[in-house]
Design goal:
CATH class of the largest domain: Alpha Beta
Radius of gyration: 22 Å
Strand order of the largest sheet: 7-9-8-6-10-11-12
Number of strands: 12
Number of domains: 2
Distance between the termini: 37 Å
CATH superfamily of the largest domain: DNA integrity scanning protein, DisA, N-terminal domain
CATH architecture of the largest domain: 3-Layer(aba) Sandwich
Strand content: 15-25%
Structural class: alpha/beta
Length: about 325
């Protein structure tokens, strides 16, 4: 290597080191301000998207704050957390998918609600950013009771309908993955109905022969990662998936009889979404609908839209 080449390489390395130090300084400042704001406004929790954090010192600071809920997506960050494990640490495992800033907050809040870590009437501070560039760039204060843009109906309490949080979280992850990945390059549109299965089955009918009939329950539970590809294949069928509270898929290709025509649903939703909302109006079930045209995900509860998550664009980080 010539002297000029060595000089260029050293300069590039020094520049990258300086940039990394500058970003961690910004992150430390963002963490400091987020904690200060949470303290000053009396927030019930500070939810931090910690895949952004590269500094072990910054991670330790967050782990030691009892107010913090740590939202983690990547394996590397999970490994770092396992080393720093403490009794008071509250960790949310998020789907390992690219989400925009708003969706990061929505998914973290939804999973925290399902686990009972937060309540719908609480004030939260969210700190999120870009894992790709390792920098926090979004600090938000959210009142779950009033944030209409985040939760379509803040007066709904969905937590009491979620019998097993792990099953709901897996269903949400599956929906997000299927919406982003599609099937053979084509978008997926389908509906999942979770819970109150006896009433749901009584208010629906098979459009085709049930592909899950006769299959052992242990081989048709959504908690089994191997079920993802089976669900992807059957998502091409018309009709809904019916899922028991414990995650067992009871049927696919199910026609949902109830439908709602109400001003409380956003304009432009088609028959799939009206049926997804309708079945939750007459039962204690929750439904999750994937839009074939947009890839957006909508969660319905008690006949109303509870949460909408927009599909991440390719540039989202």
């Amino acid at each position: 290597m010539s002297g000029d080449e060595s000089s260029v390489k050293d300069h590039s390395s020094s520049a990258n080191t300086a940039k990394s130090i500058a970003m961690e300084h910004i992150n430390a400042a963002m963490i400091c301000h987020a904690r200060q704001i949470a303290e000053e406004i009396g927030a019930h929790a500070l939810v931090v998207y910690i895949d952004v954090v590269k500094s072990r010192d910054n991670l330790k600071t967050l782990c030691q704050d009892p107010r913090c809920i740590l939202a983690v997506r990547g394996k590397e960050t999970r490994d770092d957390l396992s080393v720093l494990q403490s009794g008071q640490m509250k960790v949310l495992q998020l789907p390992d998918l690219k989400l925009n800033r708003h969706s990061q907050m929505k998914v973290a809040a939804m999973i925290a609600l399902s686990q009972g870590l937060i309540q719908r009437n609480q004030l939260l501070v969210f700190l999120s950013g870009s894992p790709k560039y390792g920098i926090f760039d979004n600090l938000a204060v959210v009142d779950l009771d009033r944030e209409i843009e985040m939760f379509s109906f803040g007066n709904l309490d969905i937590a009491d309908q979620i019998v097993q949080p792990a099953v709901f979280e897996r269903l949400l992850t599956l929906a997000l993955e299927l919406a982003q990945e599609g099937k053979e390059g084509k978008p997926i549109g389908t509906v999942f109905v979770l819970g109150d299965h006896e009433k749901v089955l009584g208010m629906s009918s098979q459009m085709i022969i049930n592909p899950f009939a006769g299959v052992p329950e242990a081989e048709r539970n959504i908690l089994d990662p191997a079920m993802k590809e089976t669900i992807r294949e059957f998502s091409a069928l018309d009709g809904a998936f019916i899922i028991r509270d414990d995650g067992v898929i009871l049927a696919a290709g199910r026609h949902l009889s109830p439908s709602v025509e109400t001003s409380e649903l956003p304009q432009g939703l088609g028959a799939r979404h009206r049926c997804a909302a309708g079945i939750t109006a007459l039962t204690k079930a929750i439904s999750v609908a994937i839009s074939e045209s947009t890839g957006d995900i909508r969660i319905f509860s008690r006949g109303k839209l509870f949460l909408e998550i927009q599909k991440a664009k390719r540039q989202s980080i």
